[in-house]
Amino acid sequence: MEIVVFGAGSLGSLIGGVLATEHDVTLVARESHARAIERTGLKLEGALETTVHPEAVTDGHGLAADLAIVTVKSFDTERAAETLATGSFEAVLSLQNGMGNEERLARYLEAPVLAGTATYGALLIEPGTVRCTGLGEIVLGPRNGGTSPVADRVGAAFDASSLETTVSASMPHRLWEKLAVNAGINPITALADIPNGAILEAPARELARACVRETARTARAHDVLLSNRVALESLESVARATAKNTSSMRQDVNAGRRTEIEAINGYVLAKAETVGLETPTNRTLVALLETWERKNASD
Ligand code: PAF
């Protein structure tokens, strides 16, 4: 299968690199990363160790492939969609954090847009080198739920590589479950500068669990039957599987970059408000991260 990975940062490079062992992959990446890949290939370290030689470009305009995988930050989705719309794809898969990405992509693109979640840990070590810091899984499927031959084809292509992949008929549920995990892990690990596993210990644990409960309650208020128990189990199992990892939001804060707080805890807050629910823990974390972002932007 011909695959374009749009936004090859840490996760995109890891997923694209593993797919490149079986497929014809093009990575759309930053200049220094693309140049290093063109020169010496893409080196994967850790559990999925190998070196592959995908094509790497910096300009994503006018590309054509069977599948475009979008791995940009949620606040860059609109820009990615505009660029992808100048090319041609049979299917598009969002593997991003946060909510609302698929709808934004579908507004610009004619190809079917699939939803996906990824729980692999990935860290960009230097241009041309990415480390797998935790084995996870990919879950993908039609963004509104149900089945489709396109989702099955994409799932089979992922399966042909060593990515652990499940094709799901209930992506809306799965996206809320992943949102709950990100809402519980990302802002706390970023603000306290701790690895993911530290949210399993007091006092971070109660804060993370409160975020997750509020998220699950908001999901249920929007007819997604996510129980507190399932969401909390998911939080604990992802935190255990990625215990030593630095969450994407902690990486962003430590590098002085904008975070995805708006599409994660901010989304929970906004959705809760539409049905008159209070989500005080999420509200506090959003306010703290937004305060940090404002200070960071003015420094
Ligand atoms: O954003 C992240 O870092 C990841 O989605 C997750 C699952 C929290 C693991 O670090």
From TrEMBL:
Catalyzes the NAD(P)H-dependent reduction of ketopantoate into pantoic acid. Catalyzes the NADPH-dependent reduction of ketopantoate into pantoic acid. One of its GO terms (cellular component) is cytoplasm. Residues 173-290 form the Ketopantoate reductase C-terminal domain. Pathway: Cofactor biosynthesis; coenzyme A biosynthesis. Belongs to the ketopantoate reductase family. This is 2-dehydropantoate 2-reductase. The keyword Disulfide bond does not apply. One of its GO terms (biological process) is pantothenate biosynthetic process. It comes from Natronosalvus hydrolyticus. Residues 3-144 form the Ketopantoate reductase N-terminal domain. It catalyses: (R)-pantoate + NADP(+) = 2-dehydropantoate + NADPH + H(+); (R)-pantoate + NAD(+) = 2-dehydropantoate + NADH + H(+). Keywords: Coenzyme A biosynthesis, NADP, Oxidoreductase. Its EC number is 1.1.1.169. InterPro entries: 6-PGluconate_DH-like_C_sf, 6PGD_dom2, ApbA, Ketopantoate_reductase, KPA_reductase, KPR_N, NAD(P)-bd_dom_sf. One of its GO terms (molecular function) is NADP binding. The keyword Plastid does not apply. It comes from the Archaea.
